[in-house]
Structure formats: structure tokens, C-alpha cells
Specification:
The complex is a heterodimer of chains A (about 120) and B (about 110).
Chain A lengths: L2 E5 L2 E5 L4 E8 L4 E8 L5 E7 L5 E3 L5 E5 L4 E6 L8 E9 L9 E2 L3 E6 L1
Parallel strand pairs in A: 2-11
Antiparallel strand pairs in A: 1-3, 3-8, 4-5, 4-9, 6-7, 7-8, 9-10, 9-11
Chain B lengths: L4 E3 L2 E4 L5 E6 L6 E7 L5 E8 L2 E4 L8 E4 L6 E5 L8 E8 L8 E2 L3 E5 L1
Parallel strand pairs in B: 2-11
Antiparallel strand pairs in B: 1-3, 3-8, 4-5, 4-9, 5-6, 7-8, 9-10, 9-11
The chains are: A mainly beta (about 120), B mainly beta (about 110).
């Protein structure tokens, strides 16, 4: 079984400050890790993913995340927050259990508020 | 290219009524997933289609939920009869890659059962 914990359901950051969203996972098999963002009235959009290879993954809009196996973490960061980053962010885990249709297991989400 | 669309965007029904949600995946995407987020909790997997076949329906909560994907195009998710605990946001996602690493989500249908 897999699970994801996102620390902090709400995070407030100042414009220009570092954005750090924490994600810890549990998986009995090598995980595949994802970060999604949901802007108001829109669907979830994939920010970045880790499957294999380099543990530091760069995504869209200046976000990046680092897979740390020893810490079972996949924290999301952005050096400088922009007002447009205000959204809800979801960490998700999957695993290559099947050849097809591997479902995503999500964390509870973190809503980011950016203060001017 | 059009994204994943879902209809309706909102639905308010009374307990005991029936509701049908529709999802149109991205054209050419054989894989279609349904997820649900109940009132501020985690988004949870419901089921997965490959074309018109159900590959995994392990997340379906009970037999009041029926999903179909006739002809391997759009999908419907029917709740009959609806209960209060069915309220939430129902997301549909589609994927071209068989393993599902690139899932594209629709905006969701917000279902409120009163």
C-alpha cells in the first residue's frame, strides 16, 4: 500500500520569498512521485514528476523537487514566489505495479497564499 | 487540442436521486480515470478504463456507483441512489501512455447531495 503526507494544509508566503511544500510518502516498492497544481476552477495540472534517474527534478513555472529515498520525501520548492503561484498543490505517488494504468495516491493538498 | 472536459460543473441533488456525470477525455487517449475528493480530504482513485474495458475498479465505494465507457470515448459515472456522503468533487483524467504517468485532469464536477 502507498500513502502520501503533505505537511501543512495551508501555507502563506510573501511575494519573492521561497516556496517550500513538504511531501513524505510511504511505498513498499520503488515509488514514482508527482506534484500537481490546481488553479481556481481548473483541473489538476502536472508540475513535475520523478520516475527514475536524476533525483532533482525541474518542472514548469520554476518549480523543482528532490527525491530523497533515505528521507522518503519529495519536497517542492520555488526560489521566488509569484502572485500567480497562489493555488492548491498536490503530491502523489504511484508505482510500477502493473504494466498499465497505475493509479495515483494523493496527499491532502496544500493551499498556497501569496502575499504582496 | 481540447483538454479533458467534464459535465456538469456543478450538480445539486437530493438524497435518493440519481445523478450522471460525464467525462470527455482528450482525443486519442485510451486510458481514462475517475477520482473523487470528498470535502477537503485526499483525492482518491475510483476506477480506470482502457478503451471501453474496466481495468481497475478497486476504488469504487459501493454498488450505487456505475461507470461506463461506451465505444471507448466518453465516460459516464452514475450514482443511484445518491447519499449525503457522496458529496464532493469528481475528477476525470485521461492518459495516452499506458502506464499512466502523464494523466491530464479535467476541472471536476462538484456534486452536492442535500
Amino acid at each position: 500500500a502507498q500513502s502520501v503526507t503533505q505537511l501543512g494544509s495551508h501555507v502563506s508566503v510573501s511575494e519573492g520569498a521561497l516556496v517550500l511544500l513538504r511531501c513524505n510518502y510511504s511505498s513498499s516498492v520503488p515509488p514514482y512521485l508527482f506534484w500537481y497544481v490546481q488553479y481556481p476552477n481548473q483541473g489538476l495540472q502536472l508540475l513535475l514528476k520523478y520516475t527514475t534517474g536524476a533525483t532533482l527534478v525541474k518542472g514548469i513555472n520554476g518549480f523543482e523537487a528532490e527525491f530523497k529515498k533515505s528521507e522518503t520525501s519529495f519536497h517542492l520548492t520555488k526560489p521566488s514566489a509569484h502572485m500567480s503561484d497562489a493555488a492548491e498543490y498536490f503530491c502523489a505517488v504511484s508505482a510500477l505495479i502493473k504494466a498499465a494504468g497505475n493509479k495515483l495516491t494523493f496527499g491532502g493538498g496544500t493551499r498556497v497564499l501569496v502575499k504582496p | 487540442e481540447a483538454g479533458v472536459t467534464q459535465f456538469p460543473s456543478h450538480s445539486v441533488i437530493e438524497k435518493g436521486q440519481t445523478v450522471t456525470l460525464r467525462c470527455d477525455p482528450i482525443s486519442g487517449h485510451d486510458n481514462l480515470y475517475w477520482y473523487r475528493r470528498v470535502m477537503g480530504k485526499e483525492i482518491k482513485f475510483l476506477l480506470h478504463f482502457v478503451k471501453e474495458s474496466k481495468q481497475d475498479e478497486s476504488g469504487m465505494p459501493n454498488n450505487r456507483f456505475l461507470a461506463e465507457r461506451t465505444g471507448g470515448t466518453y465516460s459516464t459515472l452514475k450514482v443511484q441512489p445518491a447519499e449525503l456522503e457522496d458529496s464532493g468533487v469528481y475528477f476525470c483524467a485521461s492518459s495516452q501512455d499506458l502506464r499512466g504517468w502523464e494523466q491530464y485532469f479535467g476541472p471536476g464536477t462538484r456534486l452536492t447531495v442535500t
